[in-house]
Amino acid sequence: MPASAAVQTFPAPALPSAASLAPSWVTRGTAAYGRTSWGLFFVGFATFALLYCVQPVMPDFVRSFGVTPAESSLALSLATGFLAFSIMASGVVSQRIGRRGVICASMTLGAALNIAAGLSPSWGGLLAARALEGLALGGVPAVAMVYLAEEIEPRSLGRAMGLYIAGSAFGGLMGRVGMGLMTEFASWRVAMVALGLLCLIAAALAYRLLPQSRNFRASAGLDLTRDLRFWGGHLANPALLPLFAVGFVLTGVYVTIYNYAGFRLAEAPFSLGGAAISMIFLCVVFGIVASSVSGALVERLGGRATLICGFLSMLGGVGLTALAFLPAVVAGIALVTVGFFVVHSATSSMIGPRAGAARGHAASLYLLFYYVGSSVVGSVGGWFWQHGGWSAVAAGAGALTSVGLIAALLATAKTRTA
């Protein structure tokens, strides 16, 4: 090199500062918080309207296809069962490609399959469409929980989770009541197609409103061994395992009560018509209120006391439904609904902080137990109904609720010592 040549130097690469690595939270009171809350409200609305819209029309399935009440429950149980296992895969996928896209794509596909179920000419075709619908919707619940845990400031997470679950409750309400009312003026097929179209609009609104992730860090490549290690670690975590059991019990009792309440109210001494029976699902309004205030309850009373209050509400409600007095039955279903949403909101907000880094895996495990409980207990409840009537359904639901209360006590005790 000539002596006169200038020596070119390059600056050393700058290391990321602590500030650049710190999470950029969405804080309460900002426009981003409002957009996120409304976006997740539409996500919860569409997902649970699609999932539970078949509950009020199960007696219609019995008449249209000649199936038994227990067989009619497969329209819900297959959807929730496939959703449970889809959640595991979607949590892994979202860890690699992002949360927002998985959520909105799942909503869109689920709405399209609900339309296909409504147009199916056979019982087998309807069940196949519902199973695929559950598979598609699995991309929403766990991923939405993780999206909130990653993006919302920790001190506001309980309230944000409550708003998301309030949207879920509203969706479940509109899916059930709307279907019941529409079948008074049109067929259940028309009602399912109309709901699918409405949820396509909700998916578009969610995509428009949800901000891009600020704190998401994609995992490189597929590593099943690592995923299995994360899941195994969560299953061995004494602070998480009882919460998974709570999820199994919680949705099993809730779905069983709503699955067969319609069959009971159609018989003596109530002998209600379809439109009147669908009004029972208005009890979900109490769940919307309960889920929206559950975050404040956890902040004020603590998780343990909130879980105990929720399960005691469910136990009292199950007992009231056993009475042959319509106001008592309605009050009982309302109490079960309040308890369910209080416990579910509180438990959902406990999963992420106890999971460490692999929050998506922990959320997917919780929802696996949650929806397997819905599928298994919801279908088994049909056997209790056919062989022992409502007294057998109420006895089984009460026993299972007691198991859930014990699991909640273990969960909070283990958390304090972990």
From TrEMBL:
<feature type="transmembrane region" description="Helical">
    <location>
        <begin position="74"/>
        <end position="94"/>
    </location>
</feature>
<comment type="similarity">
    <text>Belongs to the major facilitator superfamily.</text>
</comment>
<keyword id="KW-1003">Cell membrane</keyword>
<protein>
    <submittedName>
        <fullName>MFS transporter</fullName>
    </submittedName>
</protein>
<feature type="transmembrane region" description="Helical">
    <location>
        <begin position="239"/>
        <end position="261"/>
    </location>
</feature>
<feature type="transmembrane region" description="Helical">
    <location>
        <begin position="363"/>
        <end position="385"/>
    </location>
</feature>
<feature type="transmembrane region" description="Helical">
    <location>
        <begin position="101"/>
        <end position="119"/>
    </location>
</feature>
<keyword id="KW-0472">Membrane</keyword>
<feature type="transmembrane region" description="Helical">
    <location>
        <begin position="391"/>
        <end position="413"/>
    </location>
</feature>
<dbReference type="InterPro" id="IPR036259">
    <property type="entry name" value="MFS_trans_sf"/>
</dbReference>
<feature type="transmembrane region" description="Helical">
    <location>
        <begin position="131"/>
        <end position="149"/>
    </location>
</feature>
<feature type="transmembrane region" description="Helical">
    <location>
        <begin position="273"/>
        <end position="298"/>
    </location>
</feature>
<keyword id="KW-1133">Transmembrane helix</keyword>
<dbReference type="Pfam" id="PF07690">
    <property type="entry name" value="MFS_1"/>
</dbReference>
<dbReference type="InterPro" id="IPR020846">
    <property type="entry name" value="MFS_dom"/>
</dbReference>
<feature type="transmembrane region" description="Helical">
    <location>
        <begin position="161"/>
        <end position="182"/>
    </location>
</feature>
<feature type="transmembrane region" description="Helical">
    <location>
        <begin position="305"/>
        <end position="326"/>
    </location>
</feature>
<feature type="domain" description="Major facilitator superfamily (MFS) profile">
    <location>
        <begin position="32"/>
        <end position="416"/>
    </location>
</feature>
<feature type="transmembrane region" description="Helical">
    <location>
        <begin position="38"/>
        <end position="58"/>
    </location>
</feature>
<feature type="transmembrane region" description="Helical">
    <location>
        <begin position="188"/>
        <end position="210"/>
    </location>
</feature>
<keyword id="KW-0813">Transport</keyword>
<keyword id="KW-0812">Transmembrane</keyword>
<dbReference type="GO" id="GO:0022857">
    <property type="term" value="F:transmembrane transporter activity"/>
</dbReference>
<dbReference type="GO" id="GO:0005886">
    <property type="term" value="C:plasma membrane"/>
</dbReference>
<feature type="transmembrane region" description="Helical">
    <location>
        <begin position="332"/>
        <end position="351"/>
    </location>
</feature>
<dbReference type="InterPro" id="IPR011701">
    <property type="entry name" value="MFS"/>
</dbReference>
